[in-house]
Amino acid sequence: MSENKKQKLPETNLPLSENALVVLAKRYLRKNEDGSVAERPEDMFHRVAHAIARADAFYDEKADVEATALEFYEIMTNLKFMPNSPTLMNAGRDLGQLSACFVLPVDDAIESIFEAVKHTAMIHKSGGGTGFSFSRIRPEGDPVKTTHGVASGPISFMSIFDVATETIKQGGTRRGANMGILRVDHPDIEKFITCKRDHKKLNNFNISVALTEAFMKAVEVDGDLSLFNPKTKKVVKKIKAKELFEQIIDSAWANGEPGIVFLDRINANNPTPHLGEIESTNPCGEQPLLPYESCNLGSINLGKFIKNSAIDYDGLKQTIAQAVHFLDNVIDINRFPLEEIRENTQRTRKIGLGIMGFADLLISLGIPYNSRMAIHLAEELMGFIDTESKCASAELARKRGNFPAYKGSVYDRPETPFMRNATTTTIAPTGTISIISGASSGIEPLFAISYIRRVLDGAEMVEAHPLFVRMMKDCGAYSAALMEKIARSGSIQDIADVPEELKRIFITSLEISPEDHIAIQAAFQRHTDNAVSKTINFPETATKEDVKKAYMLAWREGLKGITIYRNNSRPVQVLNLKKEEAKGASQPKAVSAPAAKETPVYAAASNGKIGPRPRPSRTFGMTERVRTGCGYLYVTVNRDERDLCEAFAQMGKAGGCASCQMEAESRLISLALRSGISPSEIVKQLAGIRCPSPAWQQGEQVLSCPDAMARVLASAAELTVKKEQSQMRLCPECEATLEPESGCMVCRSCGYSKCD
Q1: pTM of the prediction?
Q2: 217, 253, 575, 703: which is deepest, by most CB within 10 A?
Q3: Catalytic residue list
Q4: What backbone torsions phi and psi does residue 386 show, to the nearest 5 degrees?
């Protein structure tokens, strides 16, 4: 929030929303040494367009690079197409790393593992996300001949990658994100399934179990699954496939992880099987890649292709061709973080053209998301995009040549003599680029029709979907008071003043059945080379049997993977002490402090007035180190024979005003404790105070030094500090609404996401 307050919005003549300008200023626009924005959005798009257009000259010295740059500039500034974030951030700048997705190999050797850790750090520093399969690492307890010890197993090594990711700051623009995959037939699979039940561990990982066809068929017939030692290739033991499947379901029901990927299905669609098997995907699961491959992504904004209440297929065809041209050029301009990645990426030249604004398109056409018409349109649209992207790739191949690994690929046949890119389509989560484009995210339905947004001056304003506002005004039903009422829940289904026709088409993610979510994902997957990123939403009341049915349906419908999210199943990192239960109201129960002692907590002063009890000569307590944005804070909380009696904090590097303020806070807290003020009341006042430099510790955000003191005091008083778990979750950076998207929680206001 404080960062947004300080940031002045850039000036622009482009049709960009305030949300878009906030995100651009925070993460994309070039900055001066003092942190001030040094380019307008127009400048950024010119920078990107000219940098990417330069690749034309590599193939034709007479190419009109300026004309190409103008084409690229126009499809971006008209918000018809947007490349992935690293391209917008880094094209035309010194870093020059333009890809979002990478997969690195991890073999069963210390040298390979730590080489992968080093390469991960280099990729994260350059702004990319990484995927790994840990399936080759021998199981925990397996003997190691060279050291005469035993192996620690894949999960312990995942922790090393997690710590490295936490340490790397991705150029100040993108957060580190990883995908960890383990085959379902690995001996450590049961430990892997539950490894993220502890929310303080592996917070920089999404995890997925790689399911085989043999496993899924064994689940169907209640058969056995053999677990293989990847080092010896021998069967370690056999277990019931259905029992293991139930464990996956239990964990996913509890907190949304692990996800699942259908590995054999992915490899059945591997366009270059002669180069090897695919073992992993990128962090959000939509981009399967060979070891040391990368893929650059971009998305077309479908909401911009409506003409006379119908889809403008001519305009869409033209933009598809321009987008394929753009993404192919990116491969040649890209400054890859590793030579191995450059070689393998250029060998297959994979690109991933996807979409955003699908929900906007449906609303504009009056089609409910959960309808047969929506499923039919999804297939028709993606079939068109896939076909036209292949035609555009073939046209480029006629001029520039096929991708080097074409011989032996699935395209190596008489009817497809030309193909520039081994893959052309991917449906990725669009996160911040959909904010910039003013579009609904990917192929997701709307998360909320209206919600409260915190704006730059700290005030709150009601944000509503622009099509909803327009349609409400058209039918004379709009009012500011009604928008505020809708913002309390995000839904309009129980609002009497909203016309029934609008309720039919403005439907939110939690109002759509898992079966309908899967039907849409399957429709898009049937015409997508790579995979489709989508969240399958469940209500909080969903059962484990509901999750099981969804997994089986996803397998039967031909999905390559699935991510589920049961509402309120995953805590967010926002400290919130539950308020006392209102008498007779259905409210969360109060946080209770330890029972008061029978002895009085106040002492009579010599002048007859009531004052705090004196500090005893001897106390006992605890000191806890907490990471804050200013450094490590050491907080001590002590007790006397009655109760908590004092608290003080010290920071080794602090001085001047900072030191004075901490001493003042400590004195006042101690005075309050010895005056009989409940620790819960003190914690309630301090918790949630925010400074400009929050920090992360053990997967939770520490907002400030007072917030850190509140945490330690709560722990010492044995208070239960609850995390907020409401449908309208809060962003830890700007306190706006978080939306579940492809295994991550994404803020549509400031662009926050742990995966982006």
Answers
A1: 0.81
A2: 703
A3: 282, 284, 286
A4: -65, -45
